[in-house]
Structures are given as C-alpha cells and as structure tokens.
Amino acid sequence: xxxxxxxxxxxxxxxxxxxxxxxxxxxxxxxxxxxxxxxxxxxxxxxxxxxxxxxxxxxxxxxxxxxxxxxxxxxxxxxxxxxxxxxxxxxxxxxxxxxxxxxxxxxxxxxxxxxxxxxxxxxxxxxxxxxxxxxxxxxxxxxxxxxxxxxxxxxxxxxxxxxxxxxxxxxxxxxxxxxxxxxxxxxxxxxxxxxxxxxxxxxxxxxxxxxxxxxxxxxxxxxxxxxxxxxxxxxxxxxxxxxxxxxxxxxxxxxxxxxxxxxxxxxxxxxxxxxxxxxxxxxxxxxxxxxxxxxxxxxxxxxxxxxxxxxxxxxxxxxxxxxxxxxxxxxxxxxxxxxxxxxxxxxxxxxxxxxxxxxxxxxxxxxxxxxxxxxxxxxxxxxxxxxxxxxxxxxxxxxxxxxxxxxxxxxxxxxxxxxxxxxxxxxxxxxxxxxxxxxxxxxxxxxxxxxxxxxxxxxxxxxxxxxxxxxxxxxxxxxxxxxxxxxxxxxxxxxxxxxxxxxx
Length: 504
Known about the structure:
mainly alpha
C-alpha cells in the first residue's frame, strides 16, 4: 500500500504493537509473518470494523450491516455501473456549451480525470488501511480513534452525515431543476402544462416508484441507472451529429447555474465521485468464502480504471466542439432535433435522481414521531425537500448550484487527501515495520535457535529490500497527495470563493 514510511507496504505485514495476538510467540523475534487478510479471510472479513482499542466485531454482524445499508453486496457489473454512471451527468452535458479554447479544455479535462482516478485509489487505500467500510467510519478512525473520545466521535458523525445529506439532496434538486429547464426551453408550445411547478410535480411523480426501493441493489434502481446511461449515449450521438453539421450548440447555458459553471470547474464536477468506499465494500461482500483470492472481474481497481476510461471516451470528444462552434452554420436545426436532444438530456439527469436520494443518510427524526407511525418519515421528507429546493427562485438556485459544485469538489479532491495526510503523518501508525536498527537476537548454542535466528535475519533483509524498492513509489504518492491538497484543493477552494464573491 503506497503510504507513509510509517506504515507497512508489503503484501505481508510484519506487525508489532501493544495487545498483539502474537505476544505468546518468542519475544526475541524481531519480525512476525502475518498472512494477508485480503487473500485468506472469508466473505466480509476483509473489513475488521474494530480498532486496536475496541473489541472486534463479529463477521456475521459486519455482513448484516452491509446487507442492510443503502449499498448492499453487489455484483461486479452493478459496481461498475455505479462507478461509471456519475460521470455521464450534468458536468458532461454542459461541456459543449463552455467557451474554453481547445488547448486549455482538453488538458484540463484529462487532468481532472487523472485526479479522479488518483482520489479513488486514495479511498481504496484508506479503506484497506483502517479497515472501515464507509466515509463516516474512516473519518472517526482518523480524528477520534480509541476510547475516551465519545463526544468528538458524536460531533464528527453529525458533521459527516449533515454534509452528506446537504450535498446529495442539493445535487438531486439541481438535477431536477435542470431537467425541467431543458424541457421548458425546448418544449414551450408542445407541453400541455408548460408551467415549471406542474412540470416539476409531474417529473417527481414519474420517478416516485423508483425512489421506493430500499437500496442500490434494487432492480428498479439498476435499470434506471442503465436508462440514464443509454439516454446520455443517445444525447452524445445527437450532439456529435449536430456539431458535424455545424447546426447549433446542443444545450444552452442554463440560467439556473451559477458563476462557477462557466469554466474549468465544470470539468472538476464532471469527474466528481462519491460512495467509493461503500462500493468497494459491496464488491468485497460478493467474494465467496471458499475463494482464496477474488477473480479479476472482482478487482475494484480494475473496475475503477475501466469506468474512468470509458467515461473519458464519452466526454473528451465534447471539448473539440468548441473549435467548430465558430464555423458558419450550414443549416438551421429542426424543432424535432432540438426536442430530441432536450429529452435525452433530461432523461439522463432525471433517472439518476433516485440513486442519489437512496444513498442519502436518514434525517434526524425524534424517536416518538418515528414510533408513532410505520411511514418512513425521513425518506418522505427527503423526497419532498428535493422538489421544494428545485422550485426556488433562479437567483437562489444559482448560488445553490455553486455550493453543490463546491461540495462535490471538496469531497472528491480535498477530503481523501486530508485524511491520507492526517492518518499517515499525524496519527499513531496501525502497523510498525522493522525499525532502522533492529538488534540481532542473542545466539543460543542450539541448532533450533540458530535456525530461528537465521530465519529472522532473512525476514528482516526481505522487509528492508521491499521497503527500499517501494520507497520511490511512496514518495511519489505522498507528493501527489500534497499537490492534490494544497495547490489543487486549497487553491481551487480559494479561487471558487473569490469567484462567487466577484473578486475576480
């Protein structure tokens, strides 16, 4: 695992520390070989939800928690779907309407695609290092590990849940708002009820059956996600056709979007990711107990890279349309073609709303109210709040859209880098490898003791060799994390705040 030199990096962990289960072994041994848990543990045991200060949790309870979560154990295809689908949404739909030179747009898009892959791998490494299966637990393990920190843990839980609720509900409301904008822009005379309020209600009622699903494992949600991707592919094909004919830009810049959406930040939003750790846990939950090692099709890293590569293939051609935007039009667009593009774009956004809302943490409803009825009050309130936010005045929506982009930027590019640096530089390491100068064990004049000493020395040399080989990789990863946190994350955040305040 590429990490700080304080943590173990080899496939075999050489661990020592307090409360070690290996205290019963010979204390003169400087190193103890521990098998890789990911390759030898049964289903669900790849995540140990306990810290070194707590009692370990039963693996059956871990599996039960995973099955009852909004992201239960999923097949490889479903995990790939949820890794791939978020890239083909609002950010990609807006790219053709951006007025950015090709020499800037293409490198910027490629840069954020690479950063997205980088941050996904950071989440993957953090999940394996701290053995936690969701963002909330990783944050607690980073900033409030151990006993005596219940107050801090409670506060951190509330912060993580509130920020997740705010970002997901706001994102769903923005998708709904833009879906209505697309239809009202291109169908003012076709729709029998062109009112924004009526159109919003109709769309919300249309996707209500999908929202009734309990998790992303529901067939309805999976089919809706595939419909969203198919609609984007159809929109993508129509967009390419229109630009090859120099007809018209496929989508006008919406008046519901704020100041951050007219430039490079749109590329950052296009490759924003979420639910990386839960999806990794759900993929691991499908590994059969008798399988010593996951099949290649169940490799999270492979699925992540494939999803990003395919998403790049469906977004990179859009930045080349700016070069053809200044070419004189050869023909006027037909109303049918404009309407077709609008419908496909609206469907791509609309059918992604249920999957966003289902993964939203429950609202804090008082227990007496929850006890008085069997109705899922939190789920209903979230669904009512989404169209209510989508119907806010345009000037409020523009500010809200900027906040949505800013939250997506922070959660994707800043939070994983901050957690990685904190847990590897400012926290006590979870595993301590052989120290720089380990004294050789005293030689005992017996054949058996001499053999153990030779084995111990061999293990030490092996570990030092592995550490030297991976030192360069660790330095590269640490350098990348600091670059991601300071110039990209910090600089981008400061620029975004200044842009929202009209400072530049």
